[in-house]
Every structure is written in structure tokens, then in C-alpha cells.
Amino acid sequence: MTTRVIADIAERAPQREALPTEVGxxxxxxxxxxxxxxxxxxxxxxxAIVGGGFSGLSAAYHLKRLQPQLNIDLxxxxxxxxxxxxxxxxxxxxxxxxxxERQVRSMGEEAAAACYRYSLAAMNQTVELIERERIDCxxxxxxxxxxxxxxxxxxxxxxxxxxxxRLGFDADLIxxxxxxxxxxxxxxxxxxxxxxxFALNPGSLCLGLKRVVQRAGVSVFERSAVTxxxxxxxxxxxxxxxxxxxxxxxxxxxxxxxxxxxxxRCVFPVRVFAMATRPLRRDERRAIGWSGGQGLYDARHxxxxxxxxxxxxVVIGGEFAHTQPNVGVDVAPxxxxxxxxxxxxxYYFPALRDIEFEARWSxxxxxxxxxxxxxAPLGDDDNVYYVGAWNGHGVALxxxxxxxxxxxxxxxxxxxxxxxxxxxxxxxxxxxxxxAPWALAGHMASLRLYDAWDGLFAHGR
Length: 461
What we know:
Strands 1, 2, 3, 10, 11, 12, 13, 19 and 20 form a 9-stranded mixed β-sheet that branches. The relative contact order is 0.19. By secondary structure, the chain is of the alpha+beta class. Residues 1-21 have low confidence and may be disordered. It has helices spanning 9-12, 54-66, 84-87, 100-107, 109-132, 151-166, 177-182, 202-215, 282-288, 335-348, 394-409, 436-455, and strands at residues 4-6, 43-50, 72-75, 91-92, 140-141, 144-148, 172-175, 191-195, 198-199, 219-221, 226-231, 236-239, 242-251, 268-277, 295-298, 305-308, 314-322, 357-367, 374-377, 384-388.
């Protein structure tokens, strides 16, 4: 039986910048209230959960539902709702893994259909959880459109629609007159593929889940950073300088995995930037249309994604970049990135070319080389699990991931477990972790060049 110690973060990584817990975020303006106490003594628990985002809260929720007597601790380095989960754009959609055509090529139609069916179920289960627990998070059924900005992308969406239909799913390809009725202010969009989807306030969902698990008896500790993990028969953690012993550990840190010294060659921290406009005036809403409020994202490799908030603000995200995992989550876009995001919004909706932006921020997501998430045991005892690397599709998947982890940790019969390609011991990785910034920068540059070449033929752009 082996023992592995994850090195002390303070000795091997730069200090993380201050988290946005005193000034608030776009979704949760103002400093947090009812912050749980920080850990101030040694602890012993059955399950220790590292990370208070969607995945960690989901694990606590589902473990308590399966075994209410379990003694569960949850440790969050900042304040719940003010980290990456609470900073995303809040689009709850059915998507997992690489594009559907790649899934069909690599593992066949039956497996690809099963994965998409699982993601649909995850979205619906997330909505059911929100409604069952009466979490107020501005939940709205909006749908989502993947849109084509070039003829080449329109052909791609047509092929994808055919694949989804062949797999047995509804896939409405919207073009021509229907598009112009819905988006009269966006002449650049040539076609759209429609998916079911919901929109919500991600910060409020985090806070709601926190209150639910606290009522169920989970001990939540905020501003309690884990700085050392020893993986062995009885795992040991160092939290705020105190010793924590647990029977099982769930590491739910998504893009911050490498900050804990784990999966450094296969889970990469990618920073995603976002901005929000001021509330649109009535004349601006009339000019752009968008009465259905569908989430939008384009079919480029390096894409933008947009949504409307209940307050009538447009949120646009994108400008992906590899980052250091210990840099604060609320870094605003640089002037160059802000200009590119503003230009992206103007390309979608020319009438909003000169609109003012009220908020700018970013968050860190976990990405993998093959596009699949990871739920993986660490060490030889199968009592420490990493869950994350959602590749930007984490609202539904992460919020339901706890049911999978709970089944595994409570030793549910194998026939009751869901067979998932991301429940795995190994994931493809780089030969060395130090290659990640260079490899990912080169990969992103090549994708941007391809998109730029394709864009030359998009309405003369």
C-alpha cells in the first residue's frame, strides 16, 4: 500500500490573489453574508470535500441523501458563491465531451447517444433539485442556439443536426425567415441549431445549495484553504494550519486541481473572460429582437457565448487563455480582451456597437486534452477522488456529479452505477506539466488562425 503526499502549496506555488469576497461579484453584488466559520481546530470526519463549488456542494448533497448519518466536512478557500462556479454565465445546457461528430467517430453512435442522453438528464435533474429545494436563483427555461457566422459553419450545423436526429434526438435547424424574425438585429447569423437549456444566477445557486447541505448536517468551513493532502489508507489534510483526518476525500476543485499538485499533466486551468452591458433600453431590445432570450454561442473553435439576464443586460464571454491556477478568480479582462469581447458583441448585434459595459470579470475552468471530464480515484485505496474538468459545461454536469461520486464512495452495486467515459483512472496528458502553457497557447493560436481564415469569408469580415 503506497502513500503519496501532495506538496505544500505555499512552498511550491505563487500566492493566490485576494478572492472577490469583500466587494461582491456581478451575480452577487456586495460582500457575502452568513459566511460559515473558518476551521480553527483539528478535525476528524468520514468525508472531507475540498471545494465549495457546484461539484463539492453536489457531492455533499447526494452523500447526505444516501447516508444521512455520514459526518461530512466541506472546505472552501474563499466564500461559497464568490468563486469560479458563482462567476460563470449560468447557462444550464445538455452538453458533455467533444463535439458530437467526434464522439460518434471515436466511440460509436450508441455510446455517443448515451452520453448526450446523460447530459439531458443532468440538466433536468439540476432543475428538479432547484425546484425541490426551492432555491431562488432566477431559473428560466430559455433554450440555447449554436449559431453559424459563415457558410462553412452553417454546413457544420446541418451535419450536426443530422447526427442528433440519427441518434434519436430532436435537433431543430433554424434558418432563413425564422432567424430574421427572432434576431432581426443580427444579420451576421446565417443558421442556428436549437438545444433545450435553462438560464440561472450561478452565485445564487451556490448559496442555495450551501444552505441546503448545512440544513442536512454538513459542516461547512469557508475561508479554509487546504494546503496539503496526504493520500493513504486514512487521508490527512492540512487546512488553515490544522490537521484533518478523513476516511474519504473528494477533491472538487475543477481548474484548480494543479494548484493541489494533482493531475497536472491532464487537467489544465483555462481562464474564461466575461463582460456585462448596462440594462438595454426598450428601443435597443426592439432593434436586436432576441425576444426568446436564448443563450447563444457560435460554431467557431474559439467562440463567444452570450445570454440575457432578467434585468435586461447582455453577458458575453470568451477570450480563453491558459492561466496559473493560483491567480485570483476575479481577474478582469485586459484592455485588448475587453475590446475583442466588445467587438464580438457588435458582430452579433451591430446596434450594440457603442453600448457601455458595467462589469468585467473572469473565472478558471478545468479542461482536458480529449474534452471529457474526469471522475478519478487517486492513490491505491480508492478513498480519494477528483471530480471536475468540465471543459466549460459544468452547470448541469457538476451539479449532478455528486450522485455519481456518492454511488462510488458508498459502494453502490455496480449494476446501479451509471457507465460514464469520464469515470476513469487515466486521462490523456502531456509528457510533462511544464509544457502545458506552451502547448495550450500553440493550440489556441492554431484554432484562432483557422477561425480567422474561415471568417474572411463571413460577409467580407
